Amino acid sequence: MTKDVAIATKYVYSFGGGTADGNEAMKNLLGGKGANLAEMAGHPDLMLPVPPGFTVTTEVCTHYYTNDHVYPKTLEKEVRAALTKVEKLMGKKFGDTTNPLLLSVRSGARRSMPGMMDTVLNIGLNDETIKGLIQQTENERFAYDSYRRLIMMYADVVMEKAAGIEIKMVRVFAKYWMKNWKPSSISMVTQAIPI
Fold this sequence. Notes:
The protein is about 50% helix and about 10% strand. By secondary structure, the chain is mainly α. It folds into 2 domains: about 1-90, ATP-grasp fold, A domain (Dna Ligase, domain 1, 2-Layer Sandwich); about 110-195, Up-down Bundle (Acyl-CoA Binding Protein), CATH 1.20.80. The strands form 2 sheets. The chain has a 3-stranded antiparallel β-sheet with strand order 2-1-3. A two-stranded antiparallel sheet has the order 4-5. The longest helix is centred in the last third of the chain and has 24 residues, at about 140-165.
């Protein structure tokens, strides 16, 4: 007698620290970037020093569009587990005010789509975590410039493409801010752009 066993779909694949859940043959599942990162990080003959991270599979997109714009139930749990792995490998914590982990997010697809969407850098910076970055780097201007980049990229990549905001005003403000920079300027940006 055989038992039907439901195999849960895996939606998040980790890489880093000399291992990877995937490989370059998994481009349909991990997208080109995700598969190549997994190959570079986990292939025993390569073992390149790729910073740790994780890839959300293309199946999440498929699930989202075939299930009334609802993400898979296990996705959040899988992302949290993958983020915990990255935190351990990096010795930092996402959202920590003294030792913040900053992330970059890239879009990917099964097939190359140049110019589809840019990377968003410095995810994890906010009015509180920036204090830790300033303390670690001893460079206040660098920290605030990193925060400015996050805000500009988020506005350009996420908000403009998702909501059609006028990005020109964000760019004008950013140029003004860099010429007339002071730490208090950031509050004007964060109030103007709800991230």
